[in-house]
Structures are given as C-alpha cells and as structure tokens.
Automatic annotation (TrEMBL):
It comes from Myxococcus llanfairpwllgwyngyllgogerychwyrndrobwllllantysiliogogogochensis. This is Uncharacterized protein. Residues 1-31, 433-452 are annotated as: Disordered. Residues 438-452 have a biased composition (Polar residues).
Length: 452
C-alpha cells in the first residue's frame, strides 16, 4: 500500500509582511451563523443550497498565545458534570455544546484554519442525538412496513392463524411498538458511547486549554510535564495532544496542517477503538428477540382475553408451536426492514452542505472535486502522518473505496474517518454553532447537571 504523496502543496509564505499584501488564493472568511426556527435543534450544515462551494483557508487567522476566557469552555470538572447527567437527551445536548465550546477554545489558541478533533466531534455528537431522541423513527418504521413487499406473505400467515383461533389480524401498531423497543436498545448504546467518549477525551481537551492558553512560545519542559499526565493506557492521546502543542507554534502552514491532521487521526483511532463495544452493541442489538417477544406477548394477551371455551383453540395453537411457526417468518422479515431503516436513519453525518451517508464513498467537498483535499494537505510529507495514513487508508490520495459497508468494523470506520478529516479539515463552517447559538456559560447550573 503506497503512502500519500501526490498533489501540489502551498509553499510557506515568508515571515516578512509585504508592503502590499498579495491576494490569498482559496481564502473564505467564516460567515456568521444563521439562526432559523427552533435554534436549539437546527443543524447549520443543512443549508447547502444557499452556501457557496466550500473552499479551504490557506493562512492562519488567529495568533498564538491567545487567552481563552474562563466560563466559555467546560473545565475538567464541567466535563465530568456533563457526563454525569442522567437524562440521555439533555446530556447529549450538553455534550454537543461542550464539544463546540472546547473546539472554539482550542481554535482560539491554535487558529481556526484547521479544525481540531473536537470540531468534528461536535457534529458527530449532534447526529448521535437524532438517534438518541428516536426522532421520527417510529412513523418511518410503520410506513416502511406498509410498503415492504416482503412483509405481505409472512403477515398473512400470522393473520390466518389468528383468524382460526378467533382473533383479529395483528395490527401494525403492535409491530411498530416492537420496533420502538428495539430502537430504544440501539439508542441506549449510542447514548452510552456518546457519554463515554466525551467524559474521557473532553477532559483532555479541557486540560490542554487550561495548561497552554496564553503561552507565546513552545516550552519543552512544560510540555513534557503535561504529557506525563496521560495514563499509560492512552498512548495515542498522549501523542496526539503532543502534536497539538507543536502545531500551536508552527509557522509553516503545511507542517501545521499535517500536525493537526495527525493529532485528529490519532484521537479518532483512540476513540473509535474505545467505542468498539458500543458500536457492536448498537448494530447487533437482539432485534429478532425483541420483535418475537413483543408480538408473541400481544397474541397471548388476545388469546387469554377470549372467553372459555373459545380460548381453548388459541391455547392449543400456543402449546403446539403453531403460533411460533407462523411468527418466525414475520419476525425475520420485520427485523430485516428494521435493520435497513435503522442503518439508513443512523448511518449519516452532518457536514457543510448536507448529510453524508456513511455507507457510500465519501464525496469531495464542494469546490474540491478535482483536488479532493485542501491546499496544505494535498501532498503529505510528515513521515509519522504518512505512516498512519498508509496503515489506515485503503486507497491512497483517493476517495474511492471509503464507503463503510459494515460500520461495526473498526478498519472500515477508520478508512472513512481519516479521509473525512483530511478533506474537510480546512472548512470554516465546521466552527458554526451547532444549535444556532454561540455557546454557554460554565459551570452549568446545578439543576441542569442533575437533569433526569
């Protein structure tokens, strides 16, 4: 597998400031976020029709040594408090906003010409919230069942059995209820993963800001002392945040962009490895068992409600396995519809201009159809980054084959994620406020911390 090497790079600009500044190629200034409707729940990425093509920034937009105002980002204690919120919906809102505020804090220190990992995590967490809240899924599922051709035969067989024992046809509402229960199991796994990663990685972002804000030059001794604070079980996080410290004072925009991408990829690999059990649990939830249990319980309740001796035929059908035999094909068909819909519903990620379907090849950002990557990341020279991309990227310098057909596989997730990071690292819209507001004030009120 060859390592990335192709594509023109932007040459570092001289440190002297020219008397007449030359126009900067490919520069787009971040636009003020637009608030629409219920600002709390609007993704500013869903405005592709109104936006100009995404074009990468090419020069630093923030000086080093910036102080981050206290209360504008969650401290280590705030991260722990947010992660302890019991209500998963309230917790996800707080986590998503917390990621955004950590992203902005780091952006003030390192510059916003390159997104950091927390910038991407903001939108991944917002997308997770859609699944955590089960938005519209029950109705989608019921509608899908009505239009699923492979449901007709199995459903007719069950209805024939129910008719013979004196019961009405099985209502779709009962099947939808089973679908809601199955979705709750999936949503809980997603919520648990969202909580776990924020509690771990969010604390490290807060610690980085608290340690290095205001610094104007690289301090090797201070950096080493800071890095010694990472546990031995977190080597990738230690390396990643070490690269952030170097990126903070790097003057060469090419080298800085590569350090940022290397750090982002290393944190991504760490958190996806940690998330493996949650992803497998979400995607391999016992859907069939859930459907079988609820549907059989519905039929049993109907039979038991029949007066004697009318209920004898129904009880016999249960005892002889006639009901189970009729239910099995229906359970298989229903579970298949559910998995197709759940995958379509959950396997998405919001990005500027719309939503990406993770099961499809990653499309290039608008305006980069021919170059694929922003200027400073078109040719990779950092040897450590080249080695990591060579290990994780199945198609060097290409977006072909990035589709994650099985999101439960770590290698497929990382193959998609590293190209997502590389193609969109310089998109200024990643720093948009996720809920149409510019942040919150920390620490959170005690009543909000105890929500749920």
């Amino acid at each position: 597998m060859k390592t990335p090497s192709s594509g023109p790079r932007v040459q570092p600009r001289p440190l002297e400031t020219p008397a007449t500044p030359a126009p900067v190629r490919n520069e787009v200034k971040p636009q003020a976020p637009v608030v629409r409707g219920d600002a709390r729940d609007v993704s500013l990425f869903d405005t592709g029709a109104a936006r100009k093509p995404t074009v990468a920034l090419t020069t630093p937009v923030a000086p080093q040594g910036t102080n981050v105002a206290p209360g504008t980002y969650p401290s280590v204690a705030d991260v722990k408090a947010i992660a302890s919120i019991q209500d998963p919906v309230a917790r996800n809102y707080a986590i998503t906003q917390g990621y955004a505020d950590l992203s902005n804090g780091l952006g003030q220190m390192l510059g916003k010409e390159n997104a950091n990992w927390s910038t991407f995590a903001t939108w991944a967490s917002k997308q997770a919230g859609v699944s955590i809240r089960n938005e519209d899924m029950p109705k989608f599922f019921t509608d899908a069942l009505k239009g699923a051709g492979d449901m007709a035969g199995p459903l007719k067989k069950v209805d024939d059995v129910l008719r013979k024992v004196g019961l009405p046809a099985l209502p779709l509402a009962d099947i939808a209820a089973a679908g809601s229960e199955a979705l709750n199991n999936v949503s809980k796994s997603i919520a648990d993963g969202n909580q776990f990663v924020f509690n771990e990685v969010g604390q490290e972002f807060a610690r980085f800001i608290e340690t290095f804000q205001g610094d104007t030059s690289y301090d090797a001794a201070k950096t080493q002392k800071y890095l010694d604070g990472f546990g031995k079980d977190k080597p990738l996080l230690k390396e990643a945040f070490g690269h952030y410290t170097k990126a903070m004072f790097e003057k060469d925009p090419n080298k800085k962009a590569e350090l940022m991408l290397l750090a982002n990829d290393q944190i991504g690999l760490h958190e996806q490895t940690q998330l493996q059990q949650h992803v497998e649990k979400a995607l391999n939830a016992p859907v069939k068992d859930t459907f079988r249990s609820i549907l059989k319980q519905s039929i049993e309740s109907g039979i038991n409600a029949l007066p004697f001796p009318a209920n004898l035929a129904g009880k016999a059908a249960l005892k002889t396995g006639l009901v189970d035999a009729a239910l099995n094909p229906l359970v298989d068909a229903t579970a298949s519809v559910f998995r197709r819909l759940a995958t379509e519903h959950m396997m998405k990620l919001a990005v500027p201009g719309g939503a990406l379907k993770l099961g499809n090849d990653l499309p290039p950002p608008p305006g980069m159809e021919s170059t694929l990557f922003p200027p400073h990341l078109r040719a990779i020279e950092n040897p450590e980054l080249r080695a990591l991309l060579g290990k994780l990227d199945s198609s060097s310098d290409s977006l072909k084959g990035t589709a994650a057909k099985d999101w439960s596989k770590l290698d497929q997730r990382m193959n998609y994620i590293i190209d997502l990071f590389r193609t969109r690292q310089s998109d200024p819209h990643l720093f948009d406020a996720p809920f149409g507001k510019t942040g919150t004030t920390y620490p959170l009120p005690a009543t909000q911390q105890r929500a749920g």
